[in-house]
Design goal:
Elements lengths: L16 E7 L2 E7 L18 E4 L2 E9 L3 E4 L1 E9 L5 E8 L15 E7 L4 E8 L4 E7 L8 E5 L5 E7 L3 E4 L15 E3 L4 E11 L4 E7 L5 E8 L4 E11 H4 L4 E9 L2 E11 L7 E8 L15 E3 L4 E11 L4 E7 L5 E8 L4 E10 H4 L5 E9 L3 E10 L1
Parallel strand pairs: 14-20, 22-28
Antiparallel strand pairs: 1-2, 3-4, 4-5, 4-10, 6-7, 7-8, 8-9, 9-12, 10-11, 13-15, 15-18, 16-17, 16-19, 19-20, 21-23, 23-26, 24-25, 24-27, 27-28
Length: 392
């Protein structure tokens, strides 16, 4: 050292690797750009025992040596601490077992690891290759004896990051907004709510991967299943599904919802449902239409999209066993979940028939375009919801 650096440079999130080396009295520098996706085209196929540096997180590495083939790397934990705001950070490295190869030593790291548990719920597992052989890296979070993420770090692509977001899951009666803001959370529901919504947030959903909601009653019987998939890869997102209180009514008590991503369980939550006393009332059909319903209860043509020129939106309900003296309401909610109008009604005599209520587009125009909601509630208890799009 002569008092000034012979080599210098800056590393950042795009240029993560820099090497300074000295040979025959001369200094040299290598730098490398990284994209976190090391190992494309060389999918790891091993299943190393790995180690558990933190609760529910398992990591592992396999070093692909020329003389001994694949060998399981050993883990050394260097540190574990919390930041001032509550993030947890763990660092360490994998090294070759000296019993397997002559150059193996805990003083000779082959791949460094930095694990970051962000206070937001995101977890990053960062692998940094500092060896010569290709190294397969693995992680699972939560650990269920199967590795969720895999990659191969090489001389040409040394950095691999595995990102997890177990996320928050809530139950609500609010329609979640498009920007994935968490809706108001509730844990107790009844028939008046009309439906229960299960909402889950997550990170790094891959294109084409499937997700699934499963709804179990208090007897652990699967009552409903909702499936879907992402059309494109995303770094952050959410999904939600709904179940009607008509399905919940016959099974009061504690319900369980399980959320699966790529056929693996990632979240499980519970809510309670209290059923109102039984009634013989049965809602056979509930729809929206642009037509004026006839007096003989003939089913009108259903529509789900309306505009100003339609003049009005009509909600039509067909039912059986409407009890004498009972009442009903049609309710209309704006995209902001604000009650805009009610159409009340009732029957003096027992009835099998239909009812309808309308809202004028002139009134709808005073509020935002988007997804509106109509409800039919019988006896202030049994509510059914339906959604429609309105453009002014």
């Amino acid at each position: 050292y002569s008092g000034s650096p012979h080599e210098q440079g800056t590393v950042n999130t795009f240029r993560r690797y820099m090497r300074h080396y000295y040979q025959k009295g001369e200094s040299h520098k290598d730098k490398q750009y990284e994209d976190t996706d090391a190992g494309q085209g060389a999918a790891p196929v091993n299943n190393p025992p790995g180690d558990v540096p933190a609760s529910q997180l398992r990591i592992g590495a396999v070093i692909k040596t020329e003389d001994k083939g694949n060998i399981n790397a050993l883990w050394y934990k260097g540190g574990d601490a919390l930041t001032g705001r509550g993030d947890q950070v763990i660092w360490g490295y994998f090294y070759a077992n000296p019993k397997d190869v002559s150059w193996g030593s805990p003083e000779n790291p082959d791949v460094f690891v930095k694990i970051w548990f962000d206070v937001s719920g995101r977890t990053d597992v960062n692998f940094f290759h500092v060896s010569v052989p290709n190294i397969e890296v693995y992680s699972a979070f939560p650990d269920r004896s199967v590795y969720d993420r895999k990659g191969t770090a090489t001389l040409e692509n040394r950095y691999v990051r595995h990102e997890y977001c177990l996320g928050a899951g809530v139950f609500s009666i609010e329609i979640p907004p498009d920007d994935c803001q968490q809706p108001a959370s509730e844990t107790l529901f009844n028939d008046k709510d009309g439906e229960v919504i299960a909402w889950i947030e997550y990170c790094s959903s891959e294109q084409g991967k499937n997700y699934r909601f499963e709804w179990y009653n208090s007897e652990n019987t699967l009552i409903q299943e909702n499936t879907g998939s992402r059309g494109e890869e995303i770094r952050y997102g959410c999904s939600w599904e709904r179940i009607s209180t008509a399905k919940l009514h016959d099974y009061p008590g504690r319900w369980t919802v399980k959320f699966y991503y790529d056929n693996r369980l990632y979240w499980e939550g519970n809510f309670d449902f209290e059923a109102d006393p039984d009634t013989d009332f049965e809602l056979k059909q509930f729809l929206l239409t642009k037509e004026t319903p006839g007096s003989e209860c003939a089913k009108p043509t259903a529509s789900t999209s309306f505009k100003t020129a339609d003049g009005y939106v009509t909600a039509w309900a067909d039912y059986e066993n409407y009890e004498a003296g009972k009442t009903h309401k049609f309710k209309w909610y704006s995209p902001a979940n604000v009650l805009i109008q009610e159409n009340p009604g009732g029957r003096d005599k027992f009835s099998n028939g239909c009812s309808w209520g309308s809202i004028y587009t002139e009134l709808l125009n005073k509020y935002a375009s988007g997804q509106w909601r109509a409800e039919f509630c019988y006896d202030s208890r049994f509510c059914t919801k339906i959604y429609f799009d309105y453009s002014k």
